[in-house]
Every structure is written in structure tokens, then in C-alpha cells.
Amino acid sequence: MTEPLIRLKGIHKYYGDYHALRGIDLDIRAGEFFSLLGPSGCGKTTLLRTIAGFEDVSKGTVVIGGQDMTALPPNKRPTNMVFQSYAIFPHLTVAQNVGFGLRKAKGTSEEKAKRVAEALQMVGLAGYGDRAAHALSGGQRQRVALARALVLRPKVLLLDEPLSALDKKMREQMQVELIRLQRQVGITFILVTHDQEEALVMSDRIAVMFEGDVAQIAEAETLYRRPVSRRVAEFIGTMNFLPATVGGDEVVVAGLGRMPVSSLQNTATTEGESVAGFRPETATLLFPGQEATDRIAEGTVTEVVYYGDMTYYDVRLTGAADPVRISMRNVFGRPVLEIGAQARLSWSPGAVTLFR
């Protein structure tokens, strides 16, 4: 098995009495797009800065490329960082910004200029070298920050919420650009983000963090479809939760009824009170003339939110206290139900997960 490019072993970080990182063990592969995802204050940026060398570890080791980097300063590590603020120098040109880190590097002026041009080509800014940095758009400044990091040819590029200052449309465009860029250059990207959708779209693997610890590491699809805890399930996307009671080989879920425990995704539960969860897109509202593909539950529509391509329904199931959210794609000929309408819900036990 290939050794990971980055290996974090038993990483602890204290700020006085505050325990910011709590014994994190983490392996990141070469050429991987890896994301650290979690709410504000969970320690993801602290962990990123630990990899970069901007934060000393209180305990543990940081190994990159088989070498212990724990005691080395940032400029001695094969990493470079793109900060949330971009930190572009407004009085310099684009080329001067990109080449700023090459001032003390070996090589002739012509060689450095060639590296700057190559970096600008990578990020789609070829021909922008002479443009004033203060005249750039937010997306262009973000690309300049990326080029300035890439020009130093690091083994690892660290991204601290680099898209947070962009509007929704530009964020989506830059997500695709970053995926393309990472595949093109082939180096390891580590992204810090609190945006679940951003992490799911961009990452090969994701580490979900809470309170200085890693709750789950998995590929995007596994993380979404097989969360290991209710807390992870709640943080990643939207999930409906219903009270459940486990007894023997069966489970009774409020609003859904009785089913074999073995038919559910997660059977690692003990007898007694539990909770069952399912994603909004894994159930289907049946319209007149439609037949169920599996089981049926009945209820009443309590809310309708229309998004153009999708409609989100809140449905209070018979036997359940709280409504569940169901997402339906708006296809030609399918009516949008109104609040108060009686609803039939088609669902499968295989889409339900039991949580302790």
C-alpha cells in the first residue's frame, strides 16, 4: 500500500486551557482533493495551519513526504497556502503579485518570468500579467492568489475558505475551476470549508470535524449516504428524523410503521428508543394515477417551497408529530401540490438509517 503524502499522528493543540485539537490522526494521499469540513470553531482552520507550520502543535507529529515537519517553519515545508482574504498587493501588477515569492528563488529573470506565465496560464489568466491588481474582479483576484501559490510548485496546496467572499454564481464557477486545476497540476489540495455542498462537489474525501476532533472521514457519496452518526447526518445536507423503537428483529418508526431491522442501512443499535433518518430525495410523493414502487405512508402537506426545478414539501405523516421534508423534481405534466392536500408517500426501508 502506498504511503500517504501527509500523516498527522496524535495532533493536540492547546490555547491555554482551551483544547482546540484533540488527538487527531489523519492520512492524506498524494494527488488527493481533501476537505476539512465543519462548523465555525471546530478546529479545521487550526488543523490546516498546523499542516502549513503557522501553528505549533502541543503534542503529536506532522509528516509530509515521509519527513517529520513538526518543528520546521512554514518556509521549510513543501506547502503553500491561499488565504481567505487573498492578500493581493493592490499597488503591484498581476505578474508582480504572482512572482512575489520567487524574488529569492534561484534562476534568471527570464526563467522566473516563464514560471509566472505558466502559473497564469494554469488559472486562466494568460495575458493579464501587466494588469493592475486593484482593477481585478473578485474571481480574478482569487485566481491570482492561486497562481501565486502554484508558481512555487508546492507538493501541497492549502486553501482556507478561498471562495467565501464570492457571490453564489462565481462560487459555483470557481468550484469547477478548482477541480479542473487540481486535476491538471496533480498536486494535493486541502480545502477548509463550512459549506457542505462545496465539500461534496469538490472533494475526493472529506473529514467532518466537531469540537476539535474528526467525526467521520469518507468519500463524498459515502459521507452523504452512510453517515456514522446523527450529528454527521444533520450537518451534511438535509435529513428527516423520526422516533423509532427497536424490539427484537423489528423496528417501529413513527409515520412509517413496522419493518425488519435487517432491512435498514444501519443495524448497529440496541433495543429500545432510537431515531430513524432518511434523505428528502429518497422518498417520492405519489400523484393521481401513480403506483408505489415500495411501501406507502400517508399524510398531509403542511408547506410548499417552489424553486423552479425542484419543489420541497413538508408532509406531516399519520402517526408522526413533526413533518418530514420531501424533494420532488418538477417535470412536465407533474402538478405542484397545495398546502392541505392529502399526500401518499412511496418509500423503501433500504433508504432509512437507524441512529443511536
Low confidence ranges: none
Estimated helix fraction: 10-25%
The CATH level-2 architecture of the largest domain is identified as: 3-Layer(aba) Sandwich
Shape: globular
Strand order of the largest sheet: 6-7-8-3-9-10
On the 0 to 100 scale, the average pLDDT is: 91
Strand content: 25-35%
- Element-level helix/strand string: EEEHEEEHHHEHEHEEHHEEEEEEEEEE
Supply the number of structural domains: 2
Number of strands: 20
How does this structure look, described?
The protein is α+β, with helices and mostly antiparallel strands and 356 residues long. The chain has two domains: 227 residues, 3-Layer(aba) Sandwich (Rossmann fold), CATH 3.40.50.300; 115 residues, OB fold (Dihydrolipoamide Acetyltransferase, E2P). 22% of the residues lie in helices and 34% in strands. The chain is built from eight helices and 20 strands. The strands form four sheets. A six-stranded mixed β-sheet has the order 6-7-8-3-9-10, sandwiched between helices. A hairpin with a 2-residue loop joins strand 4 and strand 5. Helix 3 packs across helix 4.
